[in-house]
Write a structure and sequence with these properties.
178 residues, mainly alpha, globular
Length: 178
Amino acid sequence: MKFLLKMKAWQICVMSFGFIYVIPIVMMNFGGINHHYTFQIGWILFIGLYVGYLWTLGVNLKEKIPSNLKLKSGLFNIAMAYGLIYNIFFIVFSIFGFQYIRFSDSAANPLMVIMPFHIIAMICMFYGLTFVARALVTAEKQTKVKADDYIGVFFMLWFFPIGIWFIQPRINKLFKSD
């Protein structure tokens, strides 16, 4: 997915919104598929793009950092994998699983069972955002950075469709020679 590093911001935005809106509408109108499923498929594609983009950045930015400042990516890879797998599972579960859930007042409500996994996925995604933000600023400055140096990048990555307009030109600049 290294091609994402050389794409322009508008191309990534078009791809993101295409996954969320255009593909489901086309599938619904020309494929005869239930609208509920098509939007879920669009979200799976978007989550795949988003997590793939973060993972691609994290892995490739690490190579642009001097050896004395290298970031360890083992936990990052695990966090991104868990975030992707959980999000896909949750979306598929929302398509097929909720029709079989019996909501009750009992403590064993199936939605409460999934909650710890959801919280872990959120923590993993925040860790991934933090890793990529820190890697980007470290690669740009070539020095050790503090949290206040990369907090803005963190929020731009979190608010992906808006932040991509500010992040991607920086990515393009770093990977121009590759």
